[in-house]
Amino acid sequence: MSVRRSRDVPDLVAKAREGDPRAVARLVSLVEDGDELLPQVAAALAPHAGDAHVVGLTGSPGVGKSTTTNELVRAFRKQDRRVGVLAVDPSSPFTGGAILGDRVRMQDHATDPGVYIRSMSSRGHLGGLSAATPQAVRVLDGAGCDPVVVETVGVGQAEVEIAGLADTTLVLLAPGMGDSIQAAKAGVLEIADIFVVNKADRDGADATYRDIQGMIGLGERAPGQWRPKVLRAVAARGEGIDEIVATIAEHREHLHDTGELRRRRERRAAAEIEAIALGTLRGRMEALRDGAVLAGLARRVADGDLDPHTAASELVTMTERSNDR
Hints:
Order of helices and strands: HHHEHEHEHEHEHEHEHHHH
């Protein structure tokens, strides 16, 4: 059986560790599909995961996330590091499909065996990521990629989920895409470890730089807490990329020295465990939904014979009973 169709998890993991891109692709596909082999995949990868530094890139559409990612990969490869990239693209609300254009923009690295690039559809998941992204990160981590770069959809201020997944979060901005009031708004701008003012050769770049610096100055930080850096770049020309890579390394060292890296990863693990548990419960409830259980409860609530909280409690109890059988 070809690697592409293989269901031999230990063999796939071994080949992924050796750098076989088809094995890595197969493992990520199992994750995305929610395959029944997923627990085996997670167990086989566990001894090998935990070393990769996860770098998240987010920002509004048009700020140059894919171009910046492309140049960061180039810089990391100059350091002889094996790089994994997960680029999340928005999915159609009508067909569920996605263009997956980020991978098209990173064709420079398509033939490099030291780079693995995977485009993932968000599949309607909010927050800028796909529901499968955390476990896909675990696959690339276990396969020996360090760093793992995660590029988000790019949907705006509510796209903050990346902060819970990444060790270092970069927020990209560009001149002319918001004034000082925009910079002060809550949301995505509050999650950055590093701000990058991309397209810094354009008019207004200095003003954007000052606005972000001013916003950072208003924030309160505990002694020893990381102060977000603000950098300039012109990613299309490769300018400022080396400074971004150096600052990522500086932030990684800070996280390690302060113990924050461990705390962030424990929070990430807790969120992943919770998501898996909720997914399991949701699946069991959907199984009940196929019968008359939920419909019967809904009728009783609609008729005023039962309140929704009590109905929900009954549904949970029935789910637990169905699991015990």
